[in-house]
Amino acid sequence: DLVVSASENAREPCEFSDLVIAVECGGSDTTSGLASNPVTGRFADRFIDEGGTIILSEPAEFMGAEHILAQRAIDPEDGNRIYDMVRWFEEEAKRNGVDMRGTNPTPDNIEGGLTTLEEKSLGAIAKGGSRPIVEVVEYSETPTKKGLVIMNTPSAACESMTGLLGGGSHMIIFSTGRGNAIGAPISPTIKITGNPYTASTMKENIDVDVSAIISGGQTFESAAEQLWSEMLKVSHGKITRCEVLKEDQLSISRFGPSV
User: Fold this and answer.
1) Are 143 and 56 in contact (CB under 8 A)?
2) Where are the domains of the chain?
3) Distance CA 18, CA 122 (A)
4) What separation in angstroms does the CA of 134 have from each of 60, 73, 78, 224?
5) Per-residue pLDDT reduced to its tens digit, 15-29
6) Residue 105, preceding peptide bond in cis (omega within 30° of 0)
């Protein structure tokens, strides 16, 4: 019934201020922090400057760089909440016998060239851009302010994106290095990579290829413009690779919070 009802809706013009876009990453490697995440961050800054809202999630992946985000919070209480969220994930993992600092980067990350937890975290927060943080919300909570918002979600990409959907994200920009094919079933998911190998071997999964940055054949500015152009096309109805391949998943933990 919902699908039938939704099919009767006609597209209407809207402002950037009406839109919420989430930024996500998965399968991170060296190129994530050097190319696709910084490009996504430049996109995020521009979108916020145009009046839109960007959601940055996965606080467990802020570990080692959380102070940078906390200092950008307009409200000091939000800065403290960022510290608290990161601390909670670390303590929850320890209660279950897992040392998050000892298990990050993951073997997959290390194989992709990442060397330290801090390197991974600095790359992860890069996709949020450089604008002040206006609000911190809980899992699946809808932002009430325009600008850069932090959402408290698990690190698992699918579970994180489920929360982003619940929070009202109209679109997700998903940065991947070594490759991650999943998308969201409601919000169009734009896959961007800066890894030449991934762009070649998973080209059917990638919407935006900025791997020329690595070879010096593309600037960050032109790559960000490329991503911006793709966002506009998807906003006007272009379907993403995830939609074409039906790579859409939802994940809600049934036994308690996951880390």
Assistant:
1) no
2) 16-245
3) 29
4) 20, 6, 8, 23
5) 999 999 999 999 999
6) yes
